[in-house]
Amino acid sequence: MPSYDQVFDALKLLTPREMKTLKRVRIGNPEGDGGYVLANRIRAGQKVYSYGVFDEVSFDLDLAERGMEVFLYDHTIERLVADHPNFTFVREGVAGTNLPSRSLYTIAHHIQANGHDDNDMILKMDIEGMEWEVINQTDAGVFRRFEQMVIEMHSLTLLDRRIYHENFVQAMTKLLEDFHIVHVHANNAESVYPVCGLPIPYLLEVTLIRKDLDQVGPWRTIVPTAFDAANIKGARPDLLLNFFPFLPTDLKPARLEEKMRIALKQAHATLAPARSEPEAPVVKRVTVTETAKALFAEKPQMKGRPREAAGAIADRLKVPADKREEVLPEITRLLRVSQRKGEL
Q1: What ranges in 229-323 are assigned the alpha helix state H?
Q2: % pLDDT > 70, the chain
Q3: Integer Cα distance of 205 and 254 in angstroms
Q4: Tens-place pLDDT, residues 35-52
C-alpha cells in the first residue's frame, strides 16, 4: 500500500502550469457534459482522434464545424447520435494492444490505418479507466504526434492502492516528459473524497499541450473558470479545486481571495434554486446495469441507441417526469461505465 508521501508525490504530477502566450477556449457543449477546454491554437485541417463517444459529440461537432477532420472511435455503440461531413466513425475502441476479438486497437494502429503522418493532431480520450493501460503501453512517439490532448482521468481516489498508484505514476511521468498540464476540471458526476487525508476528485478532465508549443509558468488559476461548466447541471454545484495541487501558490492574499470568490460563484452558476419538493431520485450503477440487461434482452437494438436506452431505463425505474432532466445524465453516465466494463 502506498505511503502518505507516495500519494502526495503522485498528486504533484497533476500540478497545472499557466501558459504564457496561448489562451484557453472551450470546445463543445458550453453548459455541461461534453465540453472541454483546449489551448486556442486549433486550425482548420487539423485531424482529431476522439476516443469514447457514446451519446455526446458536441466537442467533435464543434471542431468539425471549424474545418477539422474528426475520427471517432467507440466499440459500444452502433452509430453516432449526430453526423457531420467531417466525421469518420469507426466502431472500434482503444487499448494498449490490438485485441481484434474485442474490437479494440491501439492508437498507433488507427493512425496507420488512416495513413496519417501529421504531427499537429488533437487527441480526446474518455475511456472509463482504460486510459492508464493505453498511456503506459503506447510509445511516447505516438503521443508526440498530437499537439494537445484532453484526457478524462478516472478513479483517482484509488491512488492509495498499489497497482493503481504504480500505473498512474508511470503514465503521468511518461506524459510529462513531452507535455505540460495547462488546464484541469473536476467532473461533478462524482465528488471529491479524502485519500490519506488529501482531497482528491474522483474524475478529472486534464488538458495537456506539447512542450514545444508554449512556455509555461506557475499556475495562477482557480477552477472552475469562465471556460468551465458543471457536467451535471442543476442538481449540484461544480467542484471547486481550491486545494493541492491545483491551488495557486504565488498569488498575493488579496488576489487569491478575489479569484476564490470568482471561482466559487462560477461553481454555483448553474445550480438550481433551492426547492421544497423532494430531490431527484438517486440511481446506482448496479440498478442501471440490471435494468439495462433486461432492456437489451428484450430490445437488442437499444444497445446502439444510448439516448433512447437511458430514457427507457428511466421509465423502468419509474423516475418522475419532473425529475427526468436531472436524472438522465447520471443514468447515461452509469450506462456508459457498465458498457465500457463489458457488463452489458
Answers
A1: 253-267, 285-298, 306-316
A2: 96
A3: 28
A4: 999 999 999 999 999 999
Nearest to 281 by CA among 323, 335, 312: 323
On whether the CB atoms of residues 152 and 126 are closer than 8 A, the answer is yes
Q: CA-CA-CA-CA torsion for 100, 103, 108, 112, nearest 10 degrees?
A: 80
C-alpha grid cell, residue 238: 461544480
126's CB contacts (< 8 A; 6+ apart) are: 51, 52, 151, 152
Quote the cell numbers at residue 301: 437494438
Cβ atoms within 10 Å, residue 63 = 25
Beta bridge partners of 223: 241
Cα–Cα distance for residue pair 63/112, rounded to 1 Å: 22
CB atoms within 10 A of CB 9: 13
d(CA 185, CA 230): 9
Query: What angle (nearest 5°) sits at the alpha carbon of residue 305, between those of residues 302 and 308?
Result: 85
The reported pTM is 0.84
Task: Name the E strands within the chain.
Answer: 18-19, 24-27, 36-39, 47-51, 69-73, 87-90, 93-94, 104-105, 121-125, 146-153, 179-186, 192-195, 198-201, 204-210, 216-217
